[in-house]
Amino acid sequence: MTVKASADWLTWLETTDPFGLRDARLLAMPRRGGVPIVIDELKGYATASFPMWCIDGADVYWTIPETRTGQTVGPLRHKHLADGASEIVVPAQPGQTIALPSAYRGVLAYEVRGGPEAHVNIRLPDGTTRDVGVSPASEPTAGDGFVAFKRANVATAGQLAAVLLASGTIVSLGIGEQPRAGESWLAWGSWSPDPLDPASASPVFISNSTLACIARFKRPLPNANSTVSIPSVAGGRVAWLLSDNDKPQLDRLMLVVEDLRELRC
Residue 122's Cα: distance from chain center in Å? Predict the structure, then answer.
């Protein structure tokens, strides 16, 4: 299952159920080792969906959507590791889910689902909350001084944008999917080919925190059927998986890592 980490903590979802998540548990453990801590368990919920969570330092935020009386509801919960009490920090109305939380140094961004259009809220360290000012909006990710998001509903193609927290300015980033912030950098994928060199352009973009410089990494693609995963960025590097699936029976995954110091941003 997915592992999400901060400087001091590891978090992950664990299950032994091959057909679902009936016994799934959200766990945490210090990076130096120790006994795992149970953050939450799906067996305590009604019909539950896949958990969504993030970690910011020692603070874990998570949502477990559950269906009750025909409606899905998913408030956002929080726990300060290791022994803080679990609490609901963003309640949800019936039919509403607080989804895809992302946090960085006390700035919390999340998607609100349940109406005709999703929207993204930002909670600042002083406790104030504001909308990004664009609707629909989805897939938020919080970085150093910005929150990026997609200007469309989830699972719908759209333009990416980011709001600069200091000024409130919204910067357009072009077509893309699932942006990922890492400290002062933002990475995202795009399924829009490079018209100048479609055979050699890996669809991975990167920008610095001012969003004034956008670069596209180029890597030779093994073949026309190759696919690229959503990138991740941290520690001065960006990484993504490149799939060579020209022959499905011999599908290969290659890890691509690039040094951000090579960018002229």
Answer: 14
Between CA 146 and CA 93 the distance in angstroms is: 28
Between the CA of residue 196 and those of 42, 95, 173, 193, 202, what are the distances in Å?
A: 49, 46, 19, 9, 13
Region of 97 please: left (phi>0), alpha (psi -120 to 50) or beta. beta
Q: Decide if 215 contacts 234 (C-beta within 8 A).
A: no
CATH superfamily of 3-199: Prolyl oligopeptidase, N-terminal domain (2.130.10.120)
Distances 51 to 22, 27, 75, 172, 223 between C-alpha atoms, Å:
12, 12, 11, 30, 35
CA–chain centroid gap for 91, Å, is: 20
Q: What is the pLDDT of residues 93-150, one digit of tens each?
A: 999 999 999 999 999 999 999 988 999 999 999 999 999 989 999 999 999 999 999 9
Q: How far is CA 10 from CA 5, 60, 124, 185, in A?
A: 4, 10, 24, 21
Q: CA 84, 86, 69 angle in degrees (round to 5)?
A: 175
CB 147 within 8 A of CB 107: yes
Is 38 in a helix, a strand, or coil?
Answer: strand
Structure tokens at 191: 């399924």
- Residue whose pair of structure tokens reads 């009750």 in the numeric block: 68
CA angle at residue 137 from 203 to 227, to 5 degrees? 20
Burial 244-254 (b: 16+ CB within 10 A, else e): beeeeeeeeee
Tens digit of pLDDT for each residue in 179-200?
A: 999 888 898 877 555 544 444 4
